[in-house]
């Protein structure tokens, strides 16, 4: 036994030889050692802003957690108004570690969106979207929108009272979008009202359409990151910056973050299990103080503050158009920002700080009232 | 009788058509102002006026004539202000005619007047008592609204106040030697609170027990029938109980003997048992079989309530900790139903029957409590598991950090 262990580490004939032969066989057919070469040569710049590089990997890791726990939930979840709530209840009470899987899925979704926001703002502040990384930014922004869509569609799936009314309010807002609003409302709801048809539709978005789009975009995003390498901030001289190897140096640090995230998820799931609430009842009155998920709250609160009429136009429509415009601006930031050019003025960080302050202040108001 | 005949002869046929443009009743009464104009002003909200009936429908006369002596000519059928004794018949000339009332409401009752004649009010009115209530005292004379109109004095939430206008007037009631605190007592009762405070329109008011047009106090032997219209199960159980015979023999009114009549308070466990304020002690002597049974039933109910409360507290603790216990909470609701059923079964006055229901509730309470404890045990297990997992994960993080440090060196 001791001899066998030694030969494994020494790279003698035995098991190592068999692995080597297997590798050769695969290399002949797949050429997979090219990947090894890429990994060997990949390096990450080391400077005082390096910590922000980890949030991209963290978002991806939490996305993988979502996929794994989501697949496990799919084994028991039944997407219909009659069975959805009961099936989640079954997962929480009868399925071995079902409570853990569901709580991790819910907490991880929130952490993933938080990580995506941090990643987006750090990229914005460091102006990492500069040429030639414009498309990396665009795919990242689209992935952020997809994450929000995942959150919105997944929130309804337990078919509880809060989710039902939050979806009703959310789709109502979509319904006032000029020109396409009525179509959008019916498309999202599968009818005029939030019903079992909406649930089935949201389930389809959540487990098929959005994952397919997300997989394609994540692949493209990661490919672009790999192709262009990590961006170095303007304040850092790329030539004078030391670099660390991606494997193992950067990856080991990534692993520390991922393990810390798993620890946090375990603690949150055990101490604050994700509540199920009461089953949705379309005939019941809406619960008081209903609010959407935290990442939509600042928009929801803004719409509450906007006067009903502004210059003769519907205030809610103006608010929705305003957020739509902001989303569009976020998407095309690399193309419209002077900061995208090497000698551009640096007003973008000020906008970023104002946006963060706005989100925090409006969300705080919403939760305090 | 001759007065009634005259009334029917002159104005007892179909009512006059809607007011013409030059209706002298309206014109003159408005000009006279004050009390004489009041009926005209009230007519806008009057259901009869809204349906096209004019002053002449009740008062007769000829509104096409402008001279008072011609418009209000008795030969033209003018009756003026009808005598109180005639008012019922005056209203009945339309309201007792199915062929006429069908035009306005095919489901309208047409027996109000015949019922009224059987009521205490009707009998006294026909006997010439000027204080006895007649149609206008409850419905109003002018500006009469439909009973379903919330502003009508006979709308369900206004009935107690309308009856109370006379029945709470000590001076008016003194010749009849009846109490005048019914409205006050009713407002404190479980029925009054449900109707007045909770706006539960299905809750009973005066006419629900006494009748409206045939209003009469229910006799001793009829009380249970009246209460039993709504409290069917209690009535049924009481009829199976030994109390039925005893109450009948002693001419004690059922229900009212323990629950009162107007001040029917929300019943509690305190009403049953061997000590004050239990109503059982009013009749049953210490040491009697009846009092033993009362004490036994009280204890059974108290035990079930205590078990349900314990189960509730355990489940609430688990729920507050974030555990999913909606199933057992739902199950516990059935246990509470058994408690309600046990309270109702007190009316059977048989401890053995009550015990069966309490036992069913006990089983549910025990199962729910057990589910609550299991959830709390699961929670402790989860937290221990989380602590162990977190330690392992933190250990792995520590090893990784050591590895990173070594690589740096």
**Biggest pleated-sheet summary of chain A:** 2 strands, antiparallel
Structural class by secondary-structure content of chain B: mainly alpha
Oligomer: heterodimer
CATH architecture of the domain at 41-283 in chain A: Up-down Bundle
Number of helices of chain B: 23
Q: Return the average pLDDT of chain B rounded to an integer.
A: 89
Radius of gyration of chain B: 34 Å
The computed structural class of chain A is mainly alpha
Strand content of chain A: under 5%
By DSSP, the count of extended strands of chain A is 4
Elements of chain B, N to C (H/E): HHHHHHHHHHHHHHHHHHHHHHH
Terminal CA distance of chain B: 125 Å
Mean pLDDT of chain A: 90
Strand content of chain B: under 5%
Helix content class of chain B: 55-70%
How many E strands of chain B? 0
TL;DR of this structure?
By secondary structure, chain A is mostly helical. Chain A has 15 helices and four strands. The longest helix of chain B has 58 residues, at 351-408.
Features:
heterodimer; A: 369 residues; mainly alpha; Cytochrome Bc1 Complex, Chain C; two-stranded antiparallel sheet; two-stranded antiparallel ribbon; disordered N terminus; B: 409 residues; 60% helix; 0% strand; elongated
Tell me about this structure.
Chain A has a domain at 41-283: Up-down Bundle (Cytochrome Bc1 Complex, Chain C). Chain A is 69% helix and 3% strand. Chain A has helices at residues 2-10, 14-30, 33-41, 54-74, 84-93, 98-125, 134-156, 161-175, 181-189, 196-228, 246-271, 294-305, 315-331, 333-336, 348-368; strands at residues 43-45, 243-245, 309-310, 313-314. Chain A has a two-stranded antiparallel sheet with strand order 1-2. Chain A has a two-stranded antiparallel sheet with strand order 3-4. In chain A, helix 6 crosses helix 11 (246-271). The longest helix of chain A is centred in the middle third of the chain and has 33 residues, at 196-228. Chain A is globular, with a radius of gyration of 24 Å. Among the domains of chain B are: 1-145, no CATH class; 156-208, no CATH class; 296-379. Chain B is mostly helical and 409 residues long. Chain B has helices at residues 2-11, 24-32, 34-42, 47-50, 56-59, 68-71, 84-95, 98-101, 112-118, 120-126, 135-139, 159-167, 170-173, 182-188, 190-197, 206-210, 223-228, 232-240, 243-250, 256-259, 289-320, 326-345, 351-408. Helices cover 60% and strands 0% of the residues of chain B.
